[in-house]
Amino acid sequence: MKTHKVILFVSFIFVIIFSSFINSSENKSHQFVVVLDAGHGGKDPGRPTKNGYIEKDIALKIVLDIGEELEKNPNIKVIYTRKADVFVDLFERGKIANRAKADLFVSIHCNAHHTQAEGAETYVLGIHRNKTNFDVAKAENEVIYLEEDYEKKYAGFNPNSPEAVIGLTLAQEEYLDQSIQLASLIQNEFTNKLKRKDRGVKQAGFIVLHQTVMPSVLVETGFITNSSEGAYLNSRKGQNQISNSITEAIINYKKNLDQNVSNELFVEEVAQETESETINALDTNVIYKVQIAAGSRKIDPKPYNFNHLDDISFEKENNLYKYYYGASNDYKKILELEDIAKLKGYKSSFIVAFKDGKRIPISEALKKQLKKTKKKA
User: Fold this and answer.
1) S-S: 56 plus which of 40, 154, 161, 225, CB 3.0-4.6 Å?
2) pLDDT at residue number 219
3) 154 — phi, psi (to 5°)?
4) Residue 264: CB partners within 8 Å, gap ≥ 6?
5) SS3 track for 255-309
6) For the ranges 58-72, 215-229, 273-287, which has the lowest average pLDDT?
7) Residue 153: is it exposed, middle or buried by C-beta count within 10 angstroms (0-12/13-18/19+)?
8) CA 164, CA 155: separation in Å to the nearest integer?
9) Backbone angles phi, psi at 259, to 5 degrees
10) CA 180 to CA 182: how far, in whole Å?
11) Residue 138 forms beta bridges with which residues?
């Protein structure tokens, strides 16, 4: 009897040790990979400033601080596109992330303007909603002219052309929701904890985001051309605060994925400033909806759960539930519903398009309607 008990005890210990070994191996093989991209570098200093602040240096210091903190977590693996003052092609930055099969790509930059503009904003890949977004993306994209054989790498891409960047959205379309989640978390950290001016989550055609095939964001940490904000960005205090905020956002994003028990919906704060007055035609094959939120928790689509909005629908994609208000093939009608959603508290709601039950880029849907409008005219 004693021998039997000993055998059982040893077997039990062996199972525990073996299970621990397996779990440890699985954890190592399933590390969450974050690629940190310090904008510019080497012969590309970044945005010019009369105050002597150098964007490439500020971006690198923030990235190294973020990486140092993230590397303290054994479940997170950090990869850098650069760790020194060297020039790295935009094309190569994306390839680094893709080769690593990264879970996130985070690119750090500083903004600039001829005025005393201030505040932080985080971008996800998308078509340019207005001239300001286009100008920001254009300034970041023009670095390709410093690269060797850029004509071959980017197949004649013209950073000065708004039309040229519409196609950039297609590859990142399936990661848009996750990208917006992270971008929203970053902006919340900036505004709620650091009390920075919130310039929101925006969409624009950044080449460096287009090159990646995972959730990706580009953070404009502030304006180095603003006298006070530039000094803040150039200071160790400012860099530490900014890096801590971005680090916290990344960790919270990972927690939400791991736990899949988020108690909040991720409100997708994307400015959509489409010129609606040019859209007149109906396309019966395209259905528009207003996406009001997304999150990892399933919620009963009843009016009392959505500020008394009715006609709520949802779909599950991977571990993410997306919630929509209304449905119509009339773009003008859906614009009205978007306004209603905003009045009900969903300030960051935006319009999405479906064709034959599958989501398509809003730019593609609108282009189809524009073509029909022109034919009727």
Assistant:
1) 40
2) 96
3) -110, 10
4) 295
5) HHHHHCCCCCCECCCECCCCCHHHCCCCCCCEEEEEEEEEECCCCCCCHHHCCCC
6) 273-287
7) middle
8) 11
9) -85, -30
10) 5
11) none
- Tokens for 370, please give them: 């524009």
Tally the residues of the chain.
Answer: 377
In the block, tokens 């303290």 appear at: 72
Q: Is 314 left (phi over 0), alpha (psi -120 to 50) or beta?
A: beta
- Residue 129: CB atoms within 10 A of its CB come to 18
Quote the CA–CA distance of 334 and 287 in Å, as a whole number. 9
Separation between Cα atoms, residue 272 and residue 195, nearest integer Å: 25
Residue linked to tokens 């054989």:
149
Structure token digits, residue 324: 């929509």
Which residues lie across from 321 on neighbouring strands? Answer: 295, 316
- For the entire predicted model, the pTM comes to 0.60
Place of tokens 């035609």: 281
Higher-scoring residue by pLDDT: 78, 344:
78
Task: Report the range out of 194-198, 282-286, 350-354 with the highest average pLDDT.
Answer: 194-198
Other residues' Cβ atoms within 10 Å of the Cβ of residue 336: 13
47 and 142 Cβ atoms separated by less than 8 Å? no
